[in-house]
Give the backbone structure.
Amino acid sequence: MTKPAPPASLYDRAHATAKGIQSRLNNPPKIAMILGSGLGALADELDHATRISYAEIPGFPVSKVQGHAGQLVCGRLEGIDVAVMQGRAHYYEGWSMEEVTFPVRVFSLMGINHLVVTNAAGGVNPDFSEGDLMLIRDHLNLTGENPLRGPNHESFGPRFPDMSDPYDKHLREKAHAVARSLSIDLKEGVYAGVGGPSYETPAEVQMIGRVGGDAVGMSTVPEVIVANHCSMSVAGISCITNMAAGLGNETLTHDEVKETADRVRDTFISLVHGLVAEMAPLL
Ligand code: HPA
């Protein structure tokens, strides 16, 4: 009896998908972006856009969450070739950490060394208000999981990757400079990543504040861990769509999250435009 062939490795699958995407593009993207809940409008700003639905991309998980369109849009922003994920899959939908972070592996194998991640988050820092934008300085992984658990894929990075500059200091300086030039009051803080999908209790929000979290959300941390594993430099921006449970006056709904993200859309888009333009010398 012949043994069935072992399943293709994560590296081989990501490599095949990277080649498949590249074959549809004229120019190789230099920056990848992941757009969170309600922030997908930025992908409509690209020139010469090629749109590929996640359903057509082997290994890309297809999110069912409202407000997440689910397509990869490749094109030019500020004259730079970018690959933009309009919508992302979340761990709480039932995808594994490996599935959630697969697109980041693919970007790395497409030769992309820079990742801009965005998300909707609840404000924990009492100095924040609904509608603020927060540059992510660092994160707390409160998901209880790690996407690097299991056999290490040395072709991507080491077993024990350094996480001492998870959100690149130079990119943060650039983001602040852009915000100043556009008179955007850009906050900065620590993003606490939780598993979801229930919103936090007021006691959990208090705890997150005490351990150093400024905002809380249900995404980003897995992708950023994998990006660091792949030696990509990362910039992260949270849109504070609501004050977290117990700090605002209302109960939380996903509709509120989408409404606030929609309200700050133009400011968010101009900040990311400016940041991308400032990244040109790094590429
Ligand atoms: N908690 C977790 N995730 C979120 C929130 C929140 O308050 N708002 C938007 N995403």
In short: The two ends are 52 Å apart (CA to CA). DSSP finds seven helices and nine strands in the chain.
